[in-house]
Amino acid sequence: MKSIFITGTDTEVGKTHVSSLLIKYIKQFQKAVTGFKPIAAGAERAFGELVNEDALTLMESGNVALPYKLINPYVFEPPIAPHIAAKQVDVTITKAELSQHLKVLNQQELDHLIVEGAGGWALPINDTDLLSEWVAEEGLPVIMVVGLKLGCLNHALLTLSHIKQSGAKCVGWIANYVDEHMLEQDENLATLKARLDCPLLAIAPNTQNEKPKLQVYKELNTVLKLDN
Q1: Is the predicted pLDDT of residue 207 greater than 70, yes or no?
Q2: Percent of all residues in the chain with a pLDDT value above 70, rounded to a whole number
Q3: Contact (CB, 8 A) for 129 and 94
């Protein structure tokens, strides 16, 4: 199975929107695909359990029916930093447990798994560990979602630098138009293309579009191994 980790340059840059579009794009190639949201904070009770809207979106985007708990094993009600939310209910998130959940998904009949992070890249999961460390240890290729808004140049460059320092590999980035009122969008996009030393894989349109689709570059098929 081909797994890809989706991170963002900040919280609220559209990781779920982009992950959902990626899953739908992969489905066009007749591949079995779903999403994996290992950690989510911000949930409501439904069907007798806590469920997170982003995790549900990933499930609905895919074409493989799996139990919610497999897709989102760590889910917390308050929309706060996950390690703080976990402490409030006496839960400890560990890298070992995350790896076990990933192992279970690896045993399913899947061709692709889109793993969506929480918050930004350097997300604490407990008092000592970061989610990024787990990503690096698992050897998951990383796609960085850049939310095109004021400050995105700094956030993108810092995030990419930290990905490299973590020992993970960023295989490309996706631009997401999160702010339709952003000034000089094209110039900012050009600066990112010039300064980020990994390929632009796709552009996600404004979410106001009724049926948004990724504007895909050929490098995306190579990264997802859809061209073989």
Answers
A1: no
A2: 97
A3: yes
Read off the DSSP letter of residue 34. E
Q: Which long-range contacts (CB under 8 A, 24 or more apart) does 15-20 make?
A: 15/54, 15/116, 15/117, 15/145, 16/54, 16/57, 16/58, 16/116, 17/176, 17/204, 17/207, 17/212, 18/145, 18/174, 18/176, 18/204, 18/214, 19/58, 19/61, 19/114, 19/116, 20/57, 20/58, 20/61
Residue 166: C-alpha distances to residues 36, 40, 197 (Å): 21, 22, 16
Q: Could you tell me the pTM of the whole model?
A: 0.95
In degrees, rounded to 5, the angle at the alpha carbon of residue 31 between the alpha carbons of residues 1 and 36 is 55
208: exposed, middle or buried (C-beta count within 10 Å: 0-12, 13-18, 19+)?
Answer: exposed
Give the pLDDT score at 211.
74
The DSSP symbol for 208 reads T
Find the mean pLDDT for residues 194-207: 92
Average pLDDT over residues 72-78: 97
Is residue 150 within 8 Å of 184, Cβ to Cβ? no
Q: Which residues are catalytic?
A: 37
Using CA atoms, how far residue 215 sits from 154, 156, 220, 225, 226, in Å, is: 24, 20, 10, 18, 16
